[in-house]
Amino acid sequence: MFKILTLNQISIKGLERLPRNQYEIASEFTAPDAILLRSHKLAPADIAPSVKAIARAGAGTNNVPVADCTARGIPVFNSPGANANAVKELVISGLTLGSRGILQGIAYVNTLGDMKDGAELAKLLEKEKKRFKGNELAGRTLGIVGLGAIGSLIAHAALDLGMNVVGYDPALSVDAAWRLPSAVKRMENLGSLFSRADYITLHLPVLDATRGLVNAELLSNCKPGCCLLNFAREEIVNVDSVIEALEAGKLRQFITDFPTPELIGRDDVILMPHIGASTDEAEDNCAIMAANQLDDFLCNGNITNSVNFPSLQLERSGKARLAVVNRNVPKILGSILSILADADINIVDMLNKSRDEIAYNLIDVGSEVSDALLADIEALDGVIKVRHI
Ligand SMILES: NC(=O)c1ccc[n+]([C@@H]2O[C@H](COP(=O)([O-])OP(=O)(O)OC[C@H]3O[C@@H](n4cnc5c(N)ncnc54)[C@H](O)[C@@H]3O)[C@@H](O)[C@H]2O)c1
Ligand SMILES: O=C(O)CC[C@@H](O)C(=O)O
Does ligand 2 come within 6 angstroms of the Cβ of 277? Predict the structure, then answer.
């Protein structure tokens, strides 16, 4: 029986992927085998020594201490693309809210509750509606920073709306490049994107390199009247610089899923309570993907969509499987294989892959492996974690 600690509300459709005869699921456990979470901020001390894996039902893993998990041999999974459509749809709403007086118009109509004469009301609205006039998106330029799962869907949608699309992504994967419409004009740097766009939308992860990326210097490139949308992460944008740019007329509007106190109450800001992925569909998709990946790792040692471990899947063969995490340095695999050979254990199949500072091995063997042998492997210098599956 594996114990799964859930630290947020996880869709039942995902939890159903972890059958009750194999899994106990609860929001409190002292020694869980794995953690399943969404935006809960996890500290290294919250991760019990028993934890073998962490799965984030969502895209961003900045709430998980990934480097610490890597050092401890714990793979961290996410669910790439599973909530991208939900974010895309909200960004399209953001674009229309940012181009027309929709919120202001709605707020105005709601002040007129005392008017009982329908004809008078209609007359007043016809007179006042000019205050809420906007501009069309068609023909305007959208700059997309980060052209991954969300950025590429937004590029398609914006082109369908008749917008011109420019994009910037210095780390674009080959798969993401294939998904991108050819009409997207790729920018060589952020300054070029900021100087061309009427609307700029951010869809990149928060990393050391992207924290505070949108700062005063970058915003000084904006076309006057530009509208900035942040549905990525709060930390990517320097809020003080955004407020200065709004007050200087460099930015016309800031629309964000990550409110901070100084932004509340401003007319030139639209704030949403981190609801980019808050749809039934996205919550189901993320939970199903995260749970499936966790299940395959706990039961088979296979790794799909990990942010810190190599991708590795091996069909089961032999009597037992060893899953070994070690530092990515020479000779460790040789030492493991020698221990098995000395014990007359035949290797039926195996796969070894590395990613940055760690290596991961799945070794299928022809006979059972004793606890003493596992302890010998675990004691090797450079071996971080050994599981007998
Ligand atoms: N508001 C929400 O609820 C919500 C929902 C989902 C995702 N997100 C955020 O959006 C981010 C993107 O999600 P995704 O699913 O598109 O992820 P993704 O991994 O598919 O795409 C991210 C893209 O950003 C690119 N990138 C990395 N560094 C960059 C840089 N310095 N400049 C420009 N691009 C850079 C990557 O190469 C990648 O193509 C997530 O990391 C998460 O923080 C927010
Ligand atoms: O779980 C959520 O609601 C938000 C998820 C989102 O921020 C993500 O990074 O995928």
Answer: yes
> Separation of 59 CA from ligand 2 center, angstroms?
6
- Nearest ligand to the CA atom of 36: 2
Q: What pLDDT sits at residue 140? A: 98
Q: Which bin fits 258, alpha (ψ -120 to 50), beta or left (φ > 0)?
A: beta
pLDDT < 50 regions, the chain: none
- Chain centre to alpha carbon of residue 294: 17
**Do 266 and 305 fall into the same domain?**
no
Same domain (yes/no): 91, 211: yes
Ligand 2 neighbourhood includes 14 CB (under 6 angstroms): no
Q: Could you please report the per-residue DSSP string of 140-163?
A: -EEEEE--SHHHHHHHHHHHHTT-
Residues 111 and 228 in one domain: no
Residues 94, 241, single domain; the answer is yes
Say which ligand is closest to the CA of 81: 1
Does one domain contain both 170 and 247?
yes
Ligand 2 centroid to residue 58 C-alpha, Å: 5
Range of the domain at 203: 84-98+135-271
| pLDDT, tens only, 241-253 | 999 999 999 999 9
User: How much is the pLDDT for 338?
Assistant: 97
